[in-house]
Design goal:
Number of domains: 2
Helix content: 10-25%
CATH superfamily of the largest domain: Galactose-binding lectin
Distance between the termini: 33 Å
Bound molecules: calcium ion
Order of helices and strands: HHHEEEEEEEEEHEE
Number of strands: 11
């Protein structure tokens, strides 16, 4: 990356962090929640941002046990529908090492009814001033952008769905050269997470009957990109004063 672009990117993100943390200018938090905003200011930049606010209630981060069907909140139930690949593992790094945290790995190879679903023991409130957040990364090198649908369901069984592409599709993998020339080592990639923050209001078309105060289920439906191999992690509800 060009030196000047690196400097401008550092100014933007370090400056944004200071504005948000020291001066309570919470609107700068958007820089970290919506990676594509960085592109609007520095067009040459390709940005993937992983971010978690201290005001996040984690629903699933796969750290509690080795059981695929349990999540952070006791009594939560995870299930999968027709997924050819579903396990929990530590994402690999570009080297032979792995991360020291575990994520859900999900793969599919058609547009059939593939879904991954998290059900809660108690009704979840996703009303105003809250965001549904989660992290996604390509698990294998992918040259294509990836889209999927997030669906929320309330206690009465009403549901509403939103493709992540409404915010932005997950960009193709970034490739990099691990060793500098003249070493003849091919370009490689590694899983890099992107944080998504979905606004409840964006799920609701006019007159939608879904009750945001009484959610019982969040589903990830793999119905927009015919095949994918992803890591999913850090699903949570974030308090926000941005919007
Ligand atoms: Ca578990």
């Amino acid at each position: 990356m060009d030196e000047k672009i690196q400097q401008r990117a550092a100014q933007m993100y370090i400056g944004g962090f200071i504005e948000a943390v020291l001066f309570d200018r919470r609107e700068f938090e958007e820089l970290f929640l919506h990676g594509q905003l960085g592109n609007q200011w520095i067009r040459e930049l390709s940005v993937l941002v992983q971010y978690r606010s201290a005001e996040t209630e984690i629903l699933a981060d796969f750290s509690e046990d080795m059981n695929l069907h349990t999540a952070a909140k006791e009594g939560s139930v995870i299930s999968a529908s027709q997924l050819p690949l579903w396990k929990e593992e530590a994402p690999h790094l570009g080297s032979k090492d792995s991360r020291d945290t575990v994520s859900a790995r999900i793969g599919w190879n058609s547009l059939k009814q593939h879904a991954w679903t998290l059900e809660f023991p108690e009704k979840l409130n996703l009303s105003a001033e809250k965001l549904l957040v989660f992290d996604i990364a390509h698990a294998a090198e992918s040259a294509e952008p990836l889209d999927l649908t997030v669906e929320i369901t309330d206690a009465a069984g009403s549901s509403a769905a939103l493709p992540i592409g409404a915010v932005r599709k997950l960009p193709p993998s970034f490739t990099y050269r691990m060793y500098k020339p003249p070493l003849q080592v091919s370009f490689t990639s590694e899983p890099v997470f992107s944080t998504y923050g979905l606004l409840p209001a964006d799920f609701l078309p006019d007159n939608s009957p879904v009750s945001l105060e009484e959610l019982v289920k969040i589903s990830f439906n793999f119905d927009r990109t015919p095949k994918g191999d992803i890591y999913l992690d850090n699903i949570g509800i974030q308090n926000t004063r941005i919007y």
